[in-house]
Amino acid sequence: MRSFATLGFLGAAALAAASDVHDLKTDTFKPFVEKHDLVLAEFFAPWCGHCKALAPEYEEAATTLKEKDIALVKVDCTEETQLCQDQGVEGYPTLKVFRKGSYDAPSTYPGQRKADAIVSYMTKQSLPAVSAVDSKTIEDFKTQDKVVVVAYFAADDKTSNTTFTAIADSLRDSHLFGATNDAALAEKEGVKQPAVVLYKSFDEGKNTFSEKFDSEAITSFIKTSATPLIGEVGPETYAGYMSAGLPLAYIFAEEQSERDDLAKELKPVAEKFKGKVSFATIDAKAFGQHGGNLNLEVGKWPAFAIQEINKNQKFPYSQDEKITAKSIEKFVNDFVTGKIEPSIKSEPIPESNDGPVTVVVAKNYEQIVKDDKKDVLIEFYAPWCGHCKALAPKYEELGALYSSFKDKVVVSKVDATANDVPDEVQGFPTIKLYPAGKKDSPVEYSGSRTIEDLAIFIRDNGSHKVDVVANVKKEKTEDDDEDEVAKATGDMPQQAMAASETEKGTAEKVTDKVKEAVEAVVTNLNDDEGGEADVHDEL
Description:
alpha/beta; Glutaredoxin; 5 domains; five-stranded mixed sheet; globular; Protein disulfide-isomerase
């Protein structure tokens, strides 16, 4: 047994030694970053489940990017506490991009925590916004990413050059951009200057824009053409579909073969509505709960639904009807022409709503939150959220402070898991203030969750400037609040994950009990879902 253990230890040591991810400390971090042109840094904690899920992906990306002189590093925040605080780390893992000469101004890595996504993003960051291409390099450039965009214009066409460069700069995180003034190359590619060609590794292979060089038109062309006719929604593609801005039609099915068959069946429909509605299949086994978000009955597959992304509206197709090209074409056409109403999930309007905190549901959301005469503070919460539970008694006290000012200030809450709301909610709790007379400009709260700070926030950002701060009683410290969260999450690992890994500012203070719960839930998710715990959270 000892020999096997020794071999295992030596194997692990050899693997660690061979790692292409640089393990940095406080004294080596800054010199390393300043020495390299481009660095991606991961700030992590050993107990963090999401960090463990990222590790093999990060290692794979590091090996690939090493050939391009792009370095990937990691910092253990449980050991290098001050360094992580200096870098503004508020949760794990945090990924930041450092460029040579800009140590004090890193950017946050916005992509998925998968090797391919990391490689694609960092490769784009290593190149100029627009790369010069010619007849010798064009073919290789086309293969650098799934989507590349090349402009063809004359050397003296300064207007087209300026327009395209601005577009490339704004979209450089999403695509690779190239340009050439070689007229012969343009002719060989079948275009007349000025023109833009989007090359892609799917569907028809390329699309050409040959209209007037207008920034808005070209940007729209790129976003539409870069979206597959019928792709697959998943962690790698979800953000792309959301940023495209088009309504998204989901095709839910459990088996890959069934998704392929439905995609083939609905391809003519997708072609007919290209540029108006994006179509994509989605794995109902892995992401069935997302069907619930679209007001579909989870478990009743296959299913079809359209999401109007810009308005956060859902249009589920009847799950009692068969999915056919003919029926879906009519459904999508009715959607495009405005003949069907969105489905709205809502709890019943409370019979009595006289408490210190007004209960909002989807059916009374506009009436309460958008009341133009009142400053309305609203908390978007989830019943399982530990931080929401810890906030609840203080939020009630906050509401009571405004009992004499109900004609000016409303303190409210909504269960965002049981009601469709138009707001963008990235986590729980999310708190926003809708000032009177400024309902189109809500202000999101990012301070500490104390009654005093919330009251100051309402006073400073509300239109009525109601001041109740002097009436606030002495409160517990934030450390006490963390203990309350730990108690609230002790028997609910889902809450523990939210509290310890995504909640800002609490990562260093989280209790051992919560950490253990995090590990337990990640382990369970990995066992049940093939190691895709992080994937499910992100989609």
